[in-house]
Q: What sequence folds into this?
């Protein structure tokens, strides 16, 4: 099939970060283009419901275009928007939230300014590796293909993780066989890096010794291993725990389980925590649903409030409970391991709480939102990493009589099409 070329002008940035050109043929999505760009583009040949194209030539740059901060931008697939001015970037991030709300009939008056992110703050990442004839390639998976793009730097990440790329690559060159792949989760904790490697290999004694030496040489807090067999993951095993891998919530150290959920940046987490504390101030009993390892439960309990923390991950709940006990907050924290989609908190259970905190995964918390909509809980604080599922649940809550007071976007996922937000709902008295 012959390629088709067009000359277009880009009108806006779409929700995925691609530039959007409105043309006589319809909307065309063009990655790494900026509003106002005049471009020669090649239309994608694969038929699909959305028209896509790639830049062949930049004929004239739009007024907001700027140099990206990373040499891997547009190749590695990790970032979608680094190439527009700060002002345009922030307006785009704002629109991710305001457009999702508008789609559910909720106006922008409640949406506050975006709390900006900064480079060098992201404290967790997931890397991919594969052994080639020239050693291990370590980097990110491209968006649409399943290719690993090698990266030597990543300005979004904390420097401690970037500095670890090369030692990790050297280790994997020894551990992988030709063509074999590995997936590596790295989190920066208060005591050093917490690293989990998943690979199609079970460990022999000699390999364990090498891993222990590697952890010592690189001052890792913990190194875990997870065998992969035909795409299925085996049990995650701690090879060495040199130091307890801890994250501090309101000064309370929590030893997190391997590959546990932690907010992407400590700074973003502080903004979310402060908003949660402000909105729940004056409450006597708070439910923290989707509580993880206690990012909100522990600060709320430290303020002398009784908290019921619920999450489906038993290991995270155990970490939270241990931390509360060590901090002498046991009497303020009750925990439960529970799947809140299958067994949400029912009317009888909800009625004892003055405030409910919700921080679900990307899919949102529709089942629980419906039950809250019928409840008399005075305050709901909703933390979300997905404006679309949040807007759906917000509509349910508003239809149930809640006022949506504020929505604050927090740019925890710098340069990506993701945005965090924290919102407060109050039931009118
Ligand atoms: C976005 S994280 C938030 C964790 C915590 N609030 C924090 O800020 O660190 C979402 C949490 O929801 C939990 N989760 C996912 N599905 C769940 C379900 N069906 N029921 C209960 N918890 C669930 C995950 O284990 C994870 O800890």
A:
């Amino acid at each position: 099939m012959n390629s088709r070329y067009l000359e277009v002008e880009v009108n806006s940035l779409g929700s995925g970060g691609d530039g959007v050109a409105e043309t006589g043929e319809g909307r065309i999505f063009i990655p790494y283009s900026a509003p106002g760009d005049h471009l020669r583009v090649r239309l994608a040949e694969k038929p699909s419901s959305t028209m896509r194209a790639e830049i062949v030539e930049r004929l004239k740059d739009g007024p907001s275009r700027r140099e990206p901060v990373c040499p891997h931008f547009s190749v590695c697939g990790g970032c979608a928007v680094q190439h527009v001015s700060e002002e345009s970037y922030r307006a785009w991030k704002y629109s991710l939230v305001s457009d999702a709300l508008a789609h559910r009939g909720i106006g922008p008056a409640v949406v506050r300014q975006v709390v900006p992110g900064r480079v060098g703050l992201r404290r967790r990442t997931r890397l991919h590796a594969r052994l080639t004839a020239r050693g291990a390639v370590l980097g990110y998976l491209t968006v649409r293909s399943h290719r690993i793009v090698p990266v030597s730097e990543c300005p979004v990440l904390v420097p401690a993780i970037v500095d670890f790329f090369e030692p990790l690559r050297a280790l994997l060159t020894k551990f992988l066989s030709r063509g074999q792949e590995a997936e590596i989760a790295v989190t920066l904790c208060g005591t050093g890096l917490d690293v989990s490697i998943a690979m199609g290999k079970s460990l022999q004694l000699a390999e364990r010794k090498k891993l222990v030496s590697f952890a010592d040489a690189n001052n890792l807090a913990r190194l875990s291993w997870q065998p992969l067999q035909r795409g299925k993951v085996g049990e995650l095993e701690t090879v060495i725990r040199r130091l307890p891998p801890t994250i501090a919530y309101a000064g309370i150290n929590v030893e997190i389980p391997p590959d546990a959920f932690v907010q992407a940046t400590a700074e973003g987490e502080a903004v979310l925590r402060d908003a949660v504390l402000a909105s729940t101030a004056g409450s006597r009993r708070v439910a923290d649903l989707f509580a993880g390892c206690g990012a909100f439960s522990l600060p709320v309990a430290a303020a002398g409030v009784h908290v019921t923390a619920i999450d489906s991950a038993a290991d995270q709940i155990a970490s939270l409970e241990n931390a509360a006990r060590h901090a002498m907050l046991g009497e303020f924290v009750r925990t439960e391991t529970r799947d809140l989609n299958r067994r949400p908190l029912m009317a009888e259970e909800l009625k004892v709480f003055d405030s409910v905190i919700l921080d679900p995964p990307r899919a949102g918390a529709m089942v629980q939102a419906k039950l809250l909509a019928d409840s008399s809980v005075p305050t709901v604080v909703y933390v979300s990493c997905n404006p679309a599922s949040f807007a759906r649940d917000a509509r349910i809550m508003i239809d149930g009589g809640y006022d949506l007071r504020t929505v604050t976007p927090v740019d925890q996922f710098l340069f990506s099409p993701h945005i965090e937000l924290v919102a407060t709902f109050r039931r009118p008295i």
Q: What stands out?
A: The longest strand covers residues 51-60. The chain has three domains: 5-65, 95-117+261-426, 124-189+192-243. Residues 261-263, 290-293, 295-296, 311-313, 316, 339-341, 359-361 surround S-adenosylmethionine (CB under 6 Å).
